[in-house]
Amino acid sequence: MNVVQCIRSDREKTYAYMHKKSSTGRGGDYKMHTHREYEVFVFLKGSARFVIEGNSYQLRPFDILVIRSSELHRVYYETEQEYERIVLHIAEDFFTRHHCGYYCRVFEDRTAGEQNLISGDTVKQAGIPELLERMERYIRQTSRREDAAVQAGIVELLHLLNQTLRQRSILPQRNENIQEVIQYINDHIGQAITLDQIAKEFFISKYHLCRIFKESTGFTVGNYIMNKRLLKVRALCGQGMRISYACYEAGFGSYSNFYKAYVKATGAAPRKDLK
Question: Which residues form a coiled coil (predicted)?
Fold first, then answer.
């Protein structure tokens, strides 16, 4: 069962703040996924492991994960404890509106799946828990959706997160072979990629590759490639490229293949969703 402790977003949907509790860690859909926005995930209570692009982070109270839109991720629960977290989604428009584009570097200036975690000790030293308490107090004090105090708090949070960049020394648990496969896929996402081709490239049997890839990422090899291609189309369309061109650049081979994959993944036609 999920209990929402605190929630707020603005009318333009440049940010969404949510503080939630799940009674057993089973109160939602925790499949591997991405978001269109940047995500700040604050772990507060429970026993959980977070996987981002095949790298695994064991979470402790007040650990923070910073995740960009192209990073596939999900949480795994290891015991039936209460699960409490704060999730903040921040759209690119937020950085433009508040003239703080420089703060995107906490999400962008790193390899996908690496240096996502800021330790709870570092978070406490930065005063972030107190800042989050103030933000939630501001949210509860007013019903206005346009709350300047909350938005100012988000800017301050981004400032504090950026100050922690040099203090990140915690490395994720990772399978080096799978990381090399993921890098290979990302480097060749616009080309035809087959399971046989990957297995041959890394001198590994297809059966073993499929097994360890699913264990590490939560995806089959085929599903991972498909999701990365869909993300590539979204990114290219966001840069102004027409969908009919973007689907070829992302390796779909035809608009028909892309259309079927997009509808299957999202339930909507791409022209209704992509600009």
Answer: none
